[in-house]
Design goal:
The structure is a single chain. The protein has 296 residues and is of the alpha+beta class. The protein has 2 domains: 7-205, no CATH class; 210-282, Alpha-Beta Plaits, CATH 3.30.70. The chain is 61% helix and 10% strand. The protein has helices spanning 7-16, 19-42, 50-57, 64-82, 85-105, 119-140, 147-158, 162-181, 183-205, 220-230, 261-271; strands at 210-216, 236-241, 248-257, 276-282. Helix 3 (50-57) packs across helix 4, helix 4 (64-82) packs parallel to helix 7 (147-158) and helix 8 (162-181) runs antiparallel to helix 9 (183-205). The protein starts with 6 loop residues before the first helix and ends in a 14-residue tail after the last strand.
């Protein structure tokens, strides 16, 4: 008999798992962010989203580290009021270290500043490093504080999509940056946000090493035989009902290494040129298929 999972303690177990390792990952992420921020953004005037972007807009009045620290304090107070205790505790390290690292690294990068005439190089390198930092902090599952915490609060309380809210707030920061620093800076910032989002996803999800095929075909047995016997891959048969016809039909699902993508796709189409195939990236695959010959 399978041991029953205690759902109430499951979240606790997940949030406490590898906590020291995750904090180390967060610290590394915040340090990379601070170095990239000072080297490619503060010293060139290039805008970006979040607390760092607001700090650049106000850098003629306040040092960026002070602005980021102020936003971190505000976000911690709001978190203590509106969020649970654990979320607030997990935000403390990021809220303290983010402005501290920005202050400590501001002089360290002076000799490495790229001239603003090479603005595309600034955009690409800055976006690359910030994307890696964001990806590492996201993988840690811990909050970096500041605007990110405020977005979490608004998303939870007002039932806004976190992704949409993040895009809206960053969009507002960039528009303000366009008014204050010029439209060219705003356009560069849009390119940077795209690079950052791509790199963040790649660090969080990894590079896709597998493809998942969903196949609807009239030649189910032949396709199954090709995949299981010829390619020695496991296959899952899903029961489905056509949305228009209401007819029952089988959907074949198979996960294969990316290097074998061509053999699977062309083999299926050779068996049934009219097969309906959907192919998606599979970034992480867990478990072992023990039914390679028979399917699941």
């Amino acid at each position: 008999m399978k041991e029953k999972v205690d759902i109430n303690s499951l979240l606790n177990k997940v949030e406490n798992k590898d906590l020291i390792k995750r904090y180390i990952m967060l610290i590394i992420a915040l340090f990379i962010y601070a170095v990239a921020y000072n080297m490619f953004f503060v010293n060139t005037g290039l805008i970006l989203g979040g607390s760092g972007g607001i700090a650049i807009l106000l850098k003629d009045f306040l040092r960026p580290s002070i602005t980021i620290a102020a936003l971190s304090v505000i976000s911690l107070i709001l978190s203590a009021i509106f969020m649970d205790k654990r979320f607030t505790i997990n935000s403390i390290v990021g809220s303290i270290l983010a402005p501290l690292f920005v202050e400590l690294t501001k002089d360290m990068v002076i000799g490495f500043t790229i001239p603003t005439k090479d603005m595309m190089l600034v955009v690409i390198c800055g976006g690359f490093l910030i994307g890696i930092a964001n990806g590492l902090s996201s993988r840690s599952g811990l909050s970096t504080g500041g605007v990110d915490t405020i977005i979490h609060i608004i998303s939870k309380k007002l039932k806004f999509s976190h992704g949409n809210l993040y895009a809206i707030i960053n969009g507002i920061i960039i528009i303000l940056g366009g008014f204050v620093l010029g439209y060219r800076i705003a356009l560069y910032a849009l390119i940077d946000l795209y690079i950052i989002s791509i790199l963040t996803d790649k660090v969080v999800l990894g590079i896709s090493s597998n493809k998942t095929f969903f196949v609807v075909t009239d030649k189910v047995d032949e396709v199954k035989e090709y995949i299981t016997d010829t390619l020695s891959k496991g296959i899952t048969v899903l029961d489905a009902i056509g949305g228009y016809s209401n007819n029952k039909q089988d959907v074949l699902m198979v996960v294969v290494p990316t290097l074998e993508f061509y053999k699977v796709r062309e083999g299926i189409l050779s068996i049934d040129p009219n097969a309906f195939i959907t192919i998606t990236d599979s970034y992480q695959v867990y478990g072992e298929n023990k039914h390679k010959k028979k399917g699941v």
